[in-house]
Specification:
This protein has helices at 41-53, 66-78, 91-99, 115-127, 143-149, 154-170, 185-198, 213-229, 244-257, 280-291, 309-315, 344-353, 370-379; strands spanning 15-17, 20-22, 29-33, 58-62, 83-86, 104-106, 132-137, 176-181, 204-205, 235-237, 266-269, 299-303, 318-322, 326-331, 334-340. It has 380 residues and is α/β, with parallel strands linked by helices. It binds iron/sulfur cluster (SF4).
Amino acid sequence: MNINQIQTRKVTRKVFVGHQAIGGDAPIAVQSMTKTKTADVAATVRQIKQLEDAGCEIIRVAVPDLNSAEAIREIKKQIRIPLVADVHFDYRLALKAIEAGADKIRINPGNIGELSRIKRVLGLARNYEIPLRIGVNSGSLEKDILNKYGHVCAEALVESTERHIEICQDFGFDDIVLSLKASDVKMMIDSYRMIAARVDFPLHLGVTEAGTYQAATIKSAIGIGALLADGIGDTIRVSITGDPVAEVEVGFRILKALDLRENGISIISCPTCGRLQTDLFSIIQVVEKRVANIHKNLKVAIMGCTVNGPGEAREADLGIACGKNSAILFKQGKIIRKLAEDEIVEVLIREIQNWNSLTDNDNGGFTNDATEILAEEFVK
Ligand code: SF4
């Protein structure tokens, strides 16, 4: 689905992080954060390149000290995607990171201190034409806001965010992206819904401290997914305690599940059950590995039997509906050929690699009754 077809997406202002647009009608961007010491340029560039290969569109690096801020200059020369400097409290690090070439700065103006310091950071960001992300986090809310609400809650996250926005706007700066991250998924959803109803700045979605792969994937799919389904969100980061490449893969999977982005081969497969009469697990494992680096936007269904197989296979660009040690290959809804089990992987991969749309006369000589063809296999 093209982004323009998403009727329900909330329209936000568009900002640019380097060449990457966020907000407005721009596709929802997938980002990640490096886990290396930023001052270790070689290790950081190596990780960013892995992330670029996985499709990452914006990378954030931690800037805890001046060496890290200075390293941005060298890192930027060696990477293709825009870089965000993640700074907390110290305005000097923000200034250095901007001068070193950061494409966006993540810092909360209310945490910088004196107004003269805020003015310098926002002034430099304006001179360099880079946006700022206000990133409010449930783990680091201002004391007075916490005291007011008595505990961390969505209203507190929103109040904190609005306070930072106001500071920026007092200086005439509104090149802003917002995030309101909480480790509590429900609170995170509520916070973003509230802020989306009040302002039109682009929103960076994420569940913070989401945990290791399995927990983080589930929490992010629910939190980020619920908001995206509401039409809220302009860029996403899945936080995983582990390999950042997985953050990007999961991010695209969430977007693909909602038809918001296409990125490579999307495999639809059935969970299998007692009706299965082919080795579907091995077939899917091999196909998944072999298509990992094919950047064609195709839906490929690999289904276990006649119950849902022909239906799903017919809806995909390419579909396999298995029978007893055999399968039917569909292309754009038409049956192309019958396959022996040991041919399935090779033929499917070849069809993906050589993808071209069917002509009207392409039907492989079969009638379109897959159920009948497969039923023959079952009764053998
Ligand atoms: Fe079972 Fe067939 Fe459905 Fe797969 S498609 S889960 S094998 S009924």
